[in-house]
């Protein structure tokens, strides 16, 4: 202990210099910072910034205003601030998000932030403000003097912090001088500390002296606590009783041999000790050698390291756990990095796709054969037109750019609502219009529109498909089709009526020469031929679109049941059968006579198509919002080359048919707003008549009377 005191006296000059350094720092703390203090005020309302400026106006302050969180962050990057007065509710970055970003930056995380708000005054928002590092949370309206005093106090804190910072920088330079002096004494201090540590630890360890044979000569009192033996019990005993095994430059234990002591002297190594209860425990030993009156004496210092070993094991376990956590965290970071790289690649791909999409749109826009114009919805100004628009209309780019009035003068034959939609620039698809070119020519087109935004400005794109030539061709084809139909119908009528007229004329010519030849038999034959001609004309008139119909709300099933005996009689006459499957159906607005004719025509056609033994099925059912009449036969089907001719006047596959039966059915269906289609194969043909106007739909349209006339 005496030597330690003498060693410490060497450091007294350095201690005096340290005191001088502290006195110098105390004087520096009294210096005032002669510069203006920067204070940042953040609020999206200019009037609030003016109010804060009026309250905090002082020659000592440099007041900086920011109208948003983004602008505040830029100000913090440019200069240092003592206090930030931050509004909570702002567009874009709000006060909480701005404060969080400021506190995340190392240079600005110590700035005092005061939240000022007029809305978010709940405890939850106040706690959130404090959790983000705010030093105060003030609710509007605030007391000006109170705010001013709070700002003054936080400015003082900032000034003190700046003083400490300046003093710390100066102390660093002065400490370099002191450190240079201390380095000269570091070596002596280390030796002194090592010696003091060995002495202090040895006093707590077991000290044993033994001779060359290993016989114990003396022990210190610590042996009893460590090994459980008293001093008397160990005297004259062999040292190997306490230290049976040692570890020397290896992890494996070897027996303790007195003969090998010379090579162990002066070294520190581990050994395995045994106490009185024969329990083993790890120790550190160090052997010293001395000669007393030519007798070789050994001194061994023994330290119990059981606790240290446990701590080492715990440290290894903690290290393994930490290493595992580091690996897991590293893996997470690698995955996050991979995810980030993937997101970057995806973003690049999206940008490239957007670029390609814009490029494709421009190519489609320019190369499209349709007339495309883009106009602003605000002032209807032309923004862009494509080449087809210019070529069809005859205008040039210079003539249309920045024009607010429509140059095409669109007109249409649509109803008032559709015309209003075009005028209001609403969503339109393929509306028939006419447009006028620069030369005054009227052309036909189909108009489609789409509304979208270009850099925040609402715009409309109008696409006109020019169908002028198609309309001309369609009109010409319609005219030719009508002429062709008239010719075919005239040929059919002439063929069907000329036959009975020829018979009547022949008999009349015969009776002209000799009236006796005009017998009752011939007169009946002529009347039959005239009736046949009259029936052909009647059936032809049934095809007329303007035929008068007497429609009432009624069900199909009773009409079919009334016709059943007549159809069944015809079926039995030809050795065939008929079945009915009549399901519940809604009432329809129909002419009973016309529908009866339709059912008879389709049923008789089905019976004629079958051989003896065939079965005809008549079925009714509801399908979604339609009522279906199905008539199915078991004939040989209709050949595919005849499908397009079905329903055409005077087309028939029968030897004695007029070709007007199915044509009349199609005409009746059209007058009832129904549709006829069929399915045919080698097992038979099924005709479907679908009625779309049910009772519920008719009532919704305002039909209240039971009897309606079309």
TrEMBL record:
Picking any one GO molecular function of the record gives: phosphorelay sensor kinase activity
User: Looking at its record, which EC class is this enzyme?
Assistant: transferase
List the catalytic activities from the record: ATP + protein L-histidine = ADP + protein N-phospho-L-histidine
The residues covered by the Response regulatory domain are 38-155
In this chain the Histidine kinase domain maps to 492-695
- Record key words, sorted: ATP-binding, Kinase, Nucleotide-binding, Phosphoprotein, Transferase, Two-component regulatory system
InterPro entries found in the cross-reference section: CheY-like_superfamily, HATPase_C_sf, HATPase_dom, His_kinase_dom, HisK_dim/P_dom, HisK_dim/P_sf, PAS, PAS-like_dom_sf
User: PAS domain: from which residue to which, for each copy?
Assistant: 191-240, 357-431
Matching SUPFAM superfamilies: ATPase domain of HSP90 chaperone/DNA topoisomerase II/histidine kinase (SSF55874), CheY-like (SSF52172), Homodimeric domain of signal transducing histidine kinase (SSF47384), PYP-like sensor domain (PAS domain) (SSF55785)
Q: Which residues carry this modification: 4-aspartylphosphate?
A: 87
Q: What Gene3D superfamilies does the database record attribute to this sequence?
A: 1.10.287.130, 3.40.50.2300, Histidine kinase-like ATPase, C-terminal domain, PAS domain
**What EC number(s) has UniProt assigned to this enzyme?**
2.7.13.3
Q: Check the UniProt entry and state the signal peptide residues, or none.
A: none
What NCBIfam families is this protein classified in? sensory_box
The family database entries (PANTHER family) matched by this protein are listed as: HYBRID SIGNAL TRANSDUCTION HISTIDINE KINASE C (PTHR43547:SF2), TWO-COMPONENT HISTIDINE KINASE (PTHR43547)
Task: List the protein's name.
Answer: histidine kinase
